[in-house]
Amino acid sequence: MEGGGVSDVMTKADGPVVIAAGGTGGHFFPAEALADALVARGYRVALMTDARAGRRTSGVFATADQFVLPGAGVAGRGPVRALKGGLALLRGARQARTIMAKIRPSAVVGFGGYPSVPPLLGARLLPASVRPAIVLHEGNAVLGKANAFLARFADGIGTSFATVAGLPAGARVRLTGMPVRPAIAAMAGEGYEPPGEPPDGLIRLLVWGGSLGARVFSDVVPEALSLLPLEIRERVTVTQQVRAEDLERVRTAYAAYGIASRLEPFFSDVASLMREAHLVIGRAGGSSVAELEVAGRPSVLVPLPVAASDEQTANARALEGVGAAWLMRQDTFTPDALSALLAMMLTDTGVLTAAADAAAELARPDAAERLADLVEANLPGGGLRGAASGAYSGAPSGAGNGSGTGPGEDRPATSSSSFPFIDSSTPEEARP
Q1: Which among 340, 347, 339, 301 is positioned nearest to 222, based on CA atoms?
Q2: Which architecture characterizes domain 17-179+365-412 according to CATH?
Q3: Is the N or C terminus of the chain more exposed, i.e. has fewer CB atoms within 10 Å?
Q4: What percent of the chain has pLDDT above 90?
Q5: Does 181 belong to an annotated binding site?
Q6: Annotation-wise, does 140 bind a ligand?
């Protein structure tokens, strides 16, 4: 256990909001955004995470209590490894329960993935008199396995997508959107500038693949660009995330094709790269999709084929369905197919502008505030706002759409498979 300065003497209403997140950036960036929003409202936060994420030394959690819990994934493993993973999760849940019995959190918020299981299960195991509110956030269009297990205990579930498959009947669900990093949120409403006119207008492509599966982009994208007509190819410049072991061969390929490129295993300046990009090619994890929406950028999405619930395909279909992206399954993501698609859209850049506009229509740059509203609505007395005003509705200001069923309202899921939200504005692999 890591952390310090916590008091054993707290009331349920005074306790911190525990945020359960770990692993890759796709789960951690939204958690940090929510923590920032809650701290700005006067709440204390604490972090429960896993060994992969470890102790945070920067950002909002750097000065918060932090607890590293045991745990391991279960999905997709053999029987022995699954059993060991399950036992580790149970040990983590017991440890989380012991910690929470001392710090008395007011709420526990989980962001999916196995690191969220021990804290939320531990919270559920507390006596009802001291049990904190349990809130989940689902970042994909299919309920993840961890959230599917935890949803039965949740007081509220925030979602990134207007329809989420797998929600249990009766779940209290609110469309919040996916919290994104402040630098990305700042891009909301900036608009999209398509590539300039030939022959001099550059075409800037951004290619990312996250920590898993990036190799397919290294294998396919350079050759696809080499097949473009010369009048298009000579205008293209590529910024691409490439695994360290593939850097030299990909750099050599682009040089041989006469294509300007910037290649790195990791980019820290994602917002500036997104701002410059005319088209993004990448995976369809929940955080990546949300950032494309907020930035208002057209994209070619290649879902990770080994995702546990095929959630990335569902995410990509949500964008493709409104004309905001092009979905290519990995088995059809070939140089010839990608080149033909790029030739079409780079010849008539109006299709890029239309896709960018459609993506921006899906954006919820205030998702962190919406999710903070959901957390507050489930605190005793409506949280600090409720205590100050005497009542708190939990709905963001102006959220209604005129029908009394605005996106800020909690609504029960109507079936075990999906929940259609009423919102007229709405049609993990890790991000880099």
Answers
A1: 339
A2: 3-Layer(aba) Sandwich (3.40)
A3: N
A4: 67
A5: yes
A6: yes
